[in-house]
Amino acid sequence: MKIAFWICAFLVFYTYLGYGMLLWLLVKLKRIVRGKAERKALPADDELPEVTFMVCAYNEQDIVDMKMKDIHQLDYPKEKLHITWVTDGSSDETNNRLKAYPDAEIIFTPERKGKTAALNHGLSLVKSEITVMTDANTMVNAGAIKEIVRLMQDPKVAGVAGEKRVMARHEGQTAAEGEGLYWRYESALKQMDSELYSAMGAAGELNAIRTSLYAPMPENALLDDFVMSMKMVDKGYKIAYSHDAYAMEYGSADLQEESKR
Predict the structure, then answer these.
(1) What pTM does this model have?
(2) E strands, the chain, where?
(3) Which residues pair with 163 in a beta bridge?
Protein backbone atom coordinates (compact mmCIF):
# COMPACT_ATOMS: atom_id res chain seq x y z
CA MET A 1 0.00 0.00 0.00
CA LYS A 2 2.87 2.38 0.76
CA ILE A 3 4.40 1.74 -2.64
CA ALA A 4 1.03 2.29 -4.36
CA PHE A 5 0.52 5.50 -2.38
CA TRP A 6 3.88 7.00 -3.35
CA ILE A 7 3.44 6.03 -6.99
CA CYS A 8 0.05 7.77 -7.06
CA ALA A 9 1.46 10.78 -5.20
CA PHE A 10 4.32 11.03 -7.71
CA LEU A 11 1.89 10.86 -10.65
CA VAL A 12 -0.18 13.70 -9.22
CA PHE A 13 2.96 15.77 -8.55
CA TYR A 14 4.36 15.11 -12.03
CA THR A 15 1.07 15.97 -13.73
CA TYR A 16 0.70 19.37 -12.07
CA LEU A 17 4.26 20.48 -11.30
CA GLY A 18 6.87 17.89 -12.26
CA TYR A 19 6.21 18.12 -15.99
CA GLY A 20 6.59 21.90 -15.90
CA MET A 21 9.87 21.63 -13.98
CA LEU A 22 11.25 19.04 -16.41
CA LEU A 23 10.12 21.10 -19.40
CA TRP A 24 11.79 24.23 -18.02
CA LEU A 25 15.05 22.32 -17.59
CA LEU A 26 14.95 20.89 -21.12
CA VAL A 27 14.27 24.31 -22.65
CA LYS A 28 17.20 25.79 -20.70
CA LEU A 29 19.49 23.00 -21.97
CA LYS A 30 18.31 23.54 -25.54
CA ARG A 31 19.10 27.27 -25.30
CA ILE A 32 22.60 26.48 -24.01
CA VAL A 33 23.28 24.01 -26.83
CA ARG A 34 21.56 25.77 -29.76
CA GLY A 35 20.93 29.30 -28.54
CA LYS A 36 17.59 31.06 -28.62
CA ALA A 37 15.57 30.66 -31.81
CA GLU A 38 15.77 33.57 -34.24
CA ARG A 39 12.59 35.63 -34.52
CA LYS A 40 11.30 35.49 -38.09
CA ALA A 41 10.44 38.75 -39.83
CA LEU A 42 6.93 39.65 -40.99
CA PRO A 43 6.52 40.10 -44.78
CA ALA A 44 5.65 43.52 -46.18
CA ASP A 45 1.91 44.28 -46.41
CA ASP A 46 1.79 43.61 -50.17
CA GLU A 47 3.35 40.15 -49.60
CA LEU A 48 1.08 39.05 -46.76
CA PRO A 49 -1.04 35.95 -47.50
CA GLU A 50 -4.82 35.94 -47.63
CA VAL A 51 -6.41 34.96 -44.34
CA THR A 52 -9.91 33.80 -43.47
CA PHE A 53 -11.11 34.81 -40.01
CA MET A 54 -13.73 32.20 -39.10
CA VAL A 55 -16.26 32.34 -36.29
CA CYS A 56 -18.41 29.30 -35.49
CA ALA A 57 -21.54 30.53 -33.77
CA TYR A 58 -24.81 29.04 -32.57
CA ASN A 59 -27.52 31.52 -31.54
CA GLU A 60 -25.11 34.35 -30.75
CA GLN A 61 -27.37 37.30 -31.68
CA ASP A 62 -26.37 39.28 -28.59
CA ILE A 63 -22.66 39.20 -29.38
CA VAL A 64 -22.65 39.80 -33.17
CA ASP A 65 -22.15 43.57 -33.08
CA MET A 66 -19.43 43.43 -30.43
CA LYS A 67 -17.61 40.65 -32.29
CA MET A 68 -17.75 42.45 -35.64
CA LYS A 69 -16.42 45.62 -34.01
CA ASP A 70 -13.54 43.58 -32.63
CA ILE A 71 -12.84 42.02 -36.04
CA HIS A 72 -12.80 45.42 -37.72
CA GLN A 73 -10.04 46.65 -35.38
CA LEU A 74 -7.65 43.88 -36.49
CA ASP A 75 -4.40 45.22 -37.95
CA TYR A 76 -4.35 43.40 -41.27
CA PRO A 77 -4.93 44.57 -44.88
CA LYS A 78 -8.70 44.56 -45.34
CA GLU A 79 -8.47 43.28 -48.92
CA LYS A 80 -6.64 40.18 -47.67
CA LEU A 81 -8.84 39.45 -44.67
CA HIS A 82 -11.98 37.41 -45.34
CA ILE A 83 -14.58 37.28 -42.55
CA THR A 84 -16.66 34.10 -42.34
CA TRP A 85 -19.36 33.12 -39.86
CA VAL A 86 -20.52 29.50 -39.73
CA THR A 87 -23.94 29.63 -38.08
CA ASP A 88 -25.27 26.11 -38.68
CA GLY A 89 -28.45 25.41 -36.73
CA SER A 90 -28.90 28.98 -35.46
CA SER A 91 -32.57 29.80 -34.96
CA ASP A 92 -32.35 33.31 -33.46
CA GLU A 93 -31.48 36.64 -35.13
CA THR A 94 -27.76 35.87 -35.62
CA ASN A 95 -27.96 35.65 -39.42
CA ASN A 96 -30.19 38.72 -39.76
CA ARG A 97 -27.81 40.81 -37.67
CA LEU A 98 -24.84 39.63 -39.72
CA LYS A 99 -26.55 40.82 -42.91
CA ALA A 100 -25.87 44.36 -41.71
CA TYR A 101 -22.16 43.68 -42.39
CA PRO A 102 -21.53 43.25 -46.13
CA ASP A 103 -17.95 42.13 -45.53
CA ALA A 104 -19.08 39.10 -43.53
CA GLU A 105 -19.81 35.86 -45.39
CA ILE A 106 -22.49 33.68 -43.78
CA ILE A 107 -22.27 29.89 -44.10
CA PHE A 108 -25.49 28.34 -42.85
CA THR A 109 -27.49 25.15 -42.89
CA PRO A 110 -30.62 24.82 -40.73
CA GLU A 111 -29.55 21.52 -39.17
CA ARG A 112 -27.54 21.73 -35.97
CA LYS A 113 -24.79 19.09 -35.73
CA GLY A 114 -22.37 20.74 -33.30
CA LYS A 115 -19.18 22.76 -33.54
CA THR A 116 -17.03 20.02 -35.09
CA ALA A 117 -19.48 19.57 -37.95
CA ALA A 118 -19.62 23.37 -38.38
CA LEU A 119 -15.81 23.48 -38.63
CA ASN A 120 -15.81 20.70 -41.23
CA HIS A 121 -18.49 22.55 -43.20
CA GLY A 122 -16.83 25.96 -43.03
CA LEU A 123 -13.27 24.85 -43.72
CA SER A 124 -14.35 22.84 -46.76
CA LEU A 125 -15.32 26.17 -48.39
CA VAL A 126 -12.29 28.27 -47.39
CA LYS A 127 -9.93 29.27 -50.23
CA SER A 128 -7.33 31.33 -48.37
CA GLU A 129 -3.92 29.99 -47.36
CA ILE A 130 -4.45 30.49 -43.61
CA THR A 131 -7.60 30.13 -41.53
CA VAL A 132 -7.85 31.75 -38.10
CA MET A 133 -10.62 30.37 -35.87
CA THR A 134 -12.08 31.99 -32.79
CA ASP A 135 -15.17 31.73 -30.61
CA ALA A 136 -17.93 34.31 -30.91
CA ASN A 137 -17.60 35.45 -27.29
CA THR A 138 -13.82 36.02 -27.35
CA MET A 139 -12.17 39.29 -28.33
CA VAL A 140 -8.83 39.20 -30.15
CA ASN A 141 -5.97 41.69 -29.92
CA ALA A 142 -5.31 43.92 -32.93
CA GLY A 143 -1.92 42.41 -33.82
CA ALA A 144 -2.98 38.76 -33.54
CA ILE A 145 -3.22 37.90 -37.23
CA LYS A 146 0.12 39.44 -38.16
CA GLU A 147 1.74 37.53 -35.30
CA ILE A 148 0.17 34.29 -36.56
CA VAL A 149 1.36 34.97 -40.12
CA ARG A 150 4.87 35.75 -38.85
CA LEU A 151 5.11 32.38 -37.12
CA MET A 152 3.83 30.62 -40.21
CA GLN A 153 6.82 31.86 -42.20
CA ASP A 154 8.37 28.62 -40.96
CA PRO A 155 7.15 25.93 -43.41
CA LYS A 156 7.26 23.32 -40.64
CA VAL A 157 4.61 25.23 -38.68
CA ALA A 158 1.16 23.95 -39.62
CA GLY A 159 -0.75 25.85 -36.98
CA VAL A 160 -0.52 28.52 -34.33
CA ALA A 161 -2.09 28.37 -30.89
CA GLY A 162 -3.00 31.75 -29.46
CA GLU A 163 -3.06 32.55 -25.77
CA LYS A 164 -6.29 32.52 -23.80
CA ARG A 165 -6.67 35.30 -21.24
CA VAL A 166 -9.47 35.11 -18.70
CA MET A 167 -11.03 38.29 -17.35
CA ALA A 168 -12.95 38.57 -14.07
CA ARG A 169 -16.26 40.46 -14.25
CA HIS A 170 -15.49 42.08 -10.91
CA GLU A 171 -12.85 41.99 -8.19
CA GLY A 172 -12.99 38.92 -5.98
CA GLN A 173 -14.75 36.69 -8.50
CA THR A 174 -13.27 33.42 -7.25
CA ALA A 175 -14.07 31.17 -10.22
CA ALA A 176 -12.68 33.54 -12.86
CA GLU A 177 -9.56 34.37 -10.86
CA GLY A 178 -8.84 30.68 -10.36
CA GLU A 179 -9.49 29.97 -14.03
CA GLY A 180 -7.16 32.83 -14.97
CA LEU A 181 -4.36 31.45 -12.79
CA TYR A 182 -4.80 28.00 -14.34
CA TRP A 183 -4.63 29.39 -17.87
CA ARG A 184 -1.51 31.44 -17.10
CA TYR A 185 0.22 28.25 -16.00
CA GLU A 186 -1.16 26.37 -19.01
CA SER A 187 0.10 29.15 -21.29
CA ALA A 188 3.59 28.98 -19.78
CA LEU A 189 3.68 25.22 -20.42
CA LYS A 190 2.54 25.64 -24.03
CA GLN A 191 5.14 28.36 -24.61
CA MET A 192 7.88 26.02 -23.40
CA ASP A 193 6.43 23.07 -25.37
CA SER A 194 6.56 25.23 -28.50
CA GLU A 195 10.14 26.33 -27.87
CA LEU A 196 11.31 22.80 -27.16
CA TYR A 197 9.62 21.35 -30.26
CA SER A 198 5.88 21.83 -30.65
CA ALA A 199 2.79 22.66 -28.64
CA MET A 200 0.51 19.64 -28.51
CA GLY A 201 -2.85 21.33 -28.79
CA ALA A 202 -4.51 24.65 -29.48
CA ALA A 203 -7.36 26.24 -27.55
CA GLY A 204 -10.49 26.92 -29.58
CA GLU A 205 -10.60 30.54 -28.37
CA LEU A 206 -7.88 31.39 -30.92
CA ASN A 207 -6.06 29.01 -33.21
CA ALA A 208 -4.93 29.05 -36.82
CA ILE A 209 -4.01 26.43 -39.42
CA ARG A 210 -2.71 26.11 -42.95
CA THR A 211 -6.01 25.47 -44.66
CA SER A 212 -4.64 22.92 -47.12
CA LEU A 213 -3.53 20.66 -44.25
CA TYR A 214 -6.94 20.43 -42.62
CA ALA A 215 -8.40 16.93 -42.43
CA PRO A 216 -12.13 16.62 -41.60
CA MET A 217 -12.74 15.41 -38.05
CA PRO A 218 -15.30 12.91 -36.77
CA GLU A 219 -18.43 14.86 -35.89
CA ASN A 220 -18.54 13.29 -32.44
CA ALA A 221 -15.10 14.68 -31.51
CA LEU A 222 -15.40 16.51 -28.19
CA LEU A 223 -12.06 18.39 -28.20
CA ASP A 224 -12.08 19.53 -31.81
CA ASP A 225 -9.26 22.05 -31.35
CA PHE A 226 -6.99 19.43 -29.76
CA VAL A 227 -7.83 16.76 -32.37
CA MET A 228 -7.21 19.24 -35.20
CA SER A 229 -3.78 20.14 -33.82
CA MET A 230 -2.72 16.57 -33.07
CA LYS A 231 -3.59 15.43 -36.60
CA MET A 232 -1.05 17.95 -37.92
CA VAL A 233 1.60 17.02 -35.37
CA ASP A 234 1.04 13.40 -36.38
CA LYS A 235 1.92 14.36 -39.97
CA GLY A 236 5.29 15.73 -38.80
CA TYR A 237 4.39 19.42 -38.57
CA LYS A 238 4.66 21.71 -35.56
CA ILE A 239 2.16 23.82 -33.65
CA ALA A 240 3.67 27.16 -32.63
CA TYR A 241 2.46 29.05 -29.59
CA SER A 242 2.41 32.80 -29.11
CA HIS A 243 1.44 35.03 -26.19
CA ASP A 244 1.41 37.98 -28.64
CA ALA A 245 -1.72 36.58 -30.31
CA TYR A 246 -4.36 36.31 -27.64
CA ALA A 247 -8.09 35.99 -27.08
CA MET A 248 -9.85 37.50 -24.09
CA GLU A 249 -13.05 36.24 -22.52
CA TYR A 250 -14.81 36.41 -19.19
CA GLY A 251 -14.34 33.48 -16.83
CA SER A 252 -17.12 31.50 -15.22
CA ALA A 253 -19.53 33.72 -13.32
CA ASP A 254 -19.44 31.54 -10.22
CA LEU A 255 -18.30 28.15 -8.96
CA GLN A 256 -21.63 26.54 -9.91
CA GLU A 257 -21.18 27.57 -13.54
CA GLU A 258 -17.58 26.32 -13.48
CA SER A 259 -18.78 23.02 -11.99
CA LYS A 260 -21.07 22.51 -15.00
CA ARG A 261 -18.07 22.89 -17.32
Answers:
(1) 0.84
(2) 51-56, 81-86, 104-107, 130-135, 139-140, 157-167, 206-210, 238-250
(3) 246
pLDDT (tens digit per residue) in 127-170:
999 999 999 989 999 999 999 999 999 999 999 999 988 766 55
φ and ψ at residue 160, rounded to 5 degrees: -130, 130
d(CA 251, CA 118): 24
**What is the DSSP track for 88-146?**
TT--SSHHHHHTT-TTEEEE--SS---HHHHHHHHHTT--SSEEEEEETT-EE-TTHHH
Q: Which of 54, 95, 52 is nearest to 76 (CA)?
A: 52
d(CA 224, CA 217): 8
Determine the longest span between alpha carbons in the chain, in angstroms. Answer: 67
208: β partners: 132, 160
Compute CA 105 distance to the chain's CA centroid, rounded to the nearest angstrom. Answer: 21
Q: Would you say 85 and 98 are in contact if contact means Cβ atoms under 8 Å apart?
A: yes
